[in-house]
Amino acid sequence: MLIYKILTRAEWLAAQSSGQFTGSEIDRRDGYIHFSTAEQARETARLHFHGKADLVVLEVPTEGLGAAIVWEPSRGSQLFPHLYAPLAIEHVTAVHDAPLGADDVPVLNFLD
After folding, report:
1. At CA 44, angle to CA 48 and CA 66, rounded to 5?
2. Residues near 8 by beta carbon (within 8 Å), at least 6 away in sequence
3. Is the dihedral of CA 79, 85, 87, 93 positive or negative?
4. Are 104 and 98 in contact (CB under 8 A)?
5. What is the mean pLDDT of each run of 10 residues along the chain (112 residues)?
């Protein structure tokens, strides 16, 4: 199964330099890295990234993340994937641009 992480391009470049992504500010505050499934990603983009430019979306298979990936209830009691460890960049299989649409919501056309 694939899961997705929306973050700034600057955060992704920093992760590439260090070899791992330790999370955005909200992730570090909450103690885990927030991910979304393909079905959840657009709503996550709308709710949490409205008006934020220069975003990318990491595509990560859950296989290989081991026990560090935990499915927990969140928005509307849906189960969301949370990673309780840094994300090694070698686990990222694709990086997608997420430009802002006319409504200022990041466009995730790669999910179509």
Report:
1. 115
2. 24, 52, 54, 55, 56
3. negative
4. no
5. 98 98 97 98 97 98 97 92 98 98 97 93
Distances (CA, A) of 32 to 14, 27, 108: 18, 5, 23
Beta partners for residue 72, in sequence order: 80
Question: Which single residue is written with the structure tokens 């849906």?
Answer: 78
Q: How far apart are CA 78 and CA 89, in angstroms?
A: 27
Q: Which CATH superfamily is domain 2-111 in?
A: Protein of unknown function DUF952 (3.20.170.20)
- The enclosing H or E element of 28 equals helix 25-30
Residue whose structure tokens are 């999910």: 111
pTM (whole model) above 0.85: yes
